[in-house]
UniProtKB/TrEMBL annotation:
Residues of the J domain: 49-116
Designated gene of the protein: DNAJC28
Organism name: Alligator mississippiensis (American alligator)
InterPro entries to which the protein is assigned, alphabetical: DnaJ_C_subfamily_28, DnaJ_domain, DnaJ_homolog_subfam-C_membr-28, J_dom_sf
Protein name (Swiss-Prot/TrEMBL): DnaJ-like protein subfamily C member 28
Domain of life: Eukaryota
Length: 378
């Protein structure tokens, strides 16, 4: 044992790793550990010297320290096999590494102690339950940690509220659409049923009229009774209606409807008469006159459409409303009517002699045809 120790001390550079194999297994750990400690006689002057040996700057992270130590060990470790391997330099690097780690652990411990002291001061100044009332009671740990947890909680809550709002909006939209669709379906069914009933009643009336069921009615050819003794009609209303009808009163919308119909018929007759007056063929002068007539007709149609707007505002029944008249369609209608009249006049003015000649030719053709058939049969 003494011999091994002397050998390790005197010839450490050459025989440290060789003579270690000669130590018994039970004593190997103790002998190497103590003598290895004896070999690290280098002590850094201060923490800056340790950082300089590790080629680092103060304030670096523990990962940087470990990486630097690993890189230097690969360069200077006696067993690394590199050109720069040096046991003395490696011992300095290791001692500096241990010094830096010890310093970092002390700093971390002192920092934790300060935080605990600050937290203890905070706890001593406020009631125990008071800090749970802040941040809505969310989070745990120090106040700064709870504040960060509370901010994250608010972000998550806001995102949930936005999603809930969008969900409710979509649900309300789909609900409204479903209600409108159901309403339209009910309305369409109601309209179909009403139209079917009206068609059925109209068919029954027409069938009865065709059979003559309405020919022998007791009131046929007699004026209708203006008022009936219906118990559901108020006597005051019945008397007022009788007075108004006897004096020739008519609602405004009925009078306006009659006026519109008479005006459009008058305009149609006027433009057709103007077209007949111009006649054929349409020379340049006549074409100018026709264009002027069409412009005046368009202005009259615009005035009539304004009257239709007034009528649609006061008519009490929606189905009684009228649509606007189109000046272009009315002009085309007048032109078509004029052409039809001209064709009828041409056909009626044909010479009767020409008709007789055509009849004679047709008779001769028929006789010759029948003679040929008889000859073929013989």
């Amino acid at each position: 044992m003494e011999w091994v120790g002397v050998t390790l001390i005197k010839k450490v550079e050459c025989h440290l790793w060789t003579h270690r194999l000669m130590i018994p297994p039970k004593m190997r750990t103790f002998a190497c550990s103590d003598n290895y400690r004896m070999l690290s006689s280098y002590k850094p002057k201060n923490i800056k010297d340790s950082y300089r040996i590790l080629k680092l700057q103060e304030g670096c992270s523990i990962d940087d320290i470990r990486n630097s130590f690993r890189n230097l060990a690969e360069q200077y470790h006696p067993d690394s096999g590199s050109v720069t391997a040096d046991s003395a330099t490696f011992m300095q690097i290791e001692e500096a590494y241990r010094t830096v780690l010890t310093d970092l652990s002390k700093k971390l411990k002192s920092r934790e102690d300060k935080e605990e002291e600050e937290e203890d001061k905070f706890k001593s100044k406020t009631p125990q339950h008071r800090h749970y009332l802040s941040f809505e009671g969310v989070g745990f740990g120090t106040p700064s940690q709870r504040e960060r947890q509370y901010m994250q909680f608010r972000v998550d809550r806001a995102a949930d509220q936005v999603l809930e709002y969008r969900k409710q909006k979509l649900e309300s939209q789909y609900t409204t659409n479903d209600i409108m669709i159901a309403k339209d379906v009910r309305q369409s069914k109601k309209v179909k049923i009403t139209q079917a009933i009206e068609r059925l009643v109209e068919d029954l009336i027409q069938e009865s009229m065709a059979k003559g069921d309405f020919d022998n009615l007791s009131g046929k050819g007699k004026p209708l009774q203006k008022f009936s003794d219906c118990l559901h009609i108020d006597p005051m209303t019945r008397n007022l209606n009788r007075i108004l009808i006897d004096n020739g009163y008519q609602p405004e919308w009925i009078l306006l409807q009659k006026e519109i119909r008479e005006t459009i018929e008058q305009l149609r007759r006027g433009i057709l008469a103007s077209r007949k007056k111009l006649g054929e063929p349409m020379t340049l002068c006549r074409q100018k006159q026709w264009d002027h007539i069409c412009e005046q007709f368009i202005e009259d149609i615009k005035k009539l459409n304004k009257r239709i707007n007034d009528f649609n505002l006061i008519v009490p029944i929606l189905s009684r409303q009228m649509v606007h008249f189109s000046a272009d369609k009315e002009i085309a209608r007048a032109q078509k009517t004029y052409r039809t009249l001209m064709e009828e006049m041409r056909t009626s003015d044909k010479d009767p002699k020409e008709n007789e000649q055509e009849n004679v030719k047709l008779f001769r053709f028929k006789t010759t045809f029948f003679k040929w058939i008889n000859l073929m049969l013989k």
